[in-house]
Amino acid sequence: MRLQSDAAATLLQNIIHKPLLVIGDLMLDRFIDGVVERISPEAPVPILSNTTIQTMPGGAANVARNICQIGAKCHLIGITGKDEAAEELEDDLKQLAGLSFHPLQIANRTTTTKTRFRAGAQQIMRLDDEVKSPISSEDADNLIAIATPLIAASEIIILSDYAKGCLTDEVISRVISLAKDAGKRVIIDPKSNDFARYSGAYLVTPNLSELKAATSIAHDDDETLKATAGALAKTHNIANILTTLSARGMRLDGADGTFHIASLTKDVFDVSGAGDTVVASLACALAAGETLQTAMVFANQAASIVVSKPGTAAFCAGEMLASCSSSYEAESDLDAVTAKAKRWATDGLTIGFTNGCFDLLHAGHIHILQEAAKHCDKLIIGLNSDESVKGLKGPKRPIQNQDIRAFNLSQFSFCDGVVIFDDETPLKLIEALSPDVLIKGGDYNVTEIVGYDVVTKKGGTVLTIPLLEGHSTTAFLAR
Question: What superfamily does domain 5-35+51-322 belong to in CATH?
Answer without folding.
Answer: Ribokinase (3.40.1190.20)
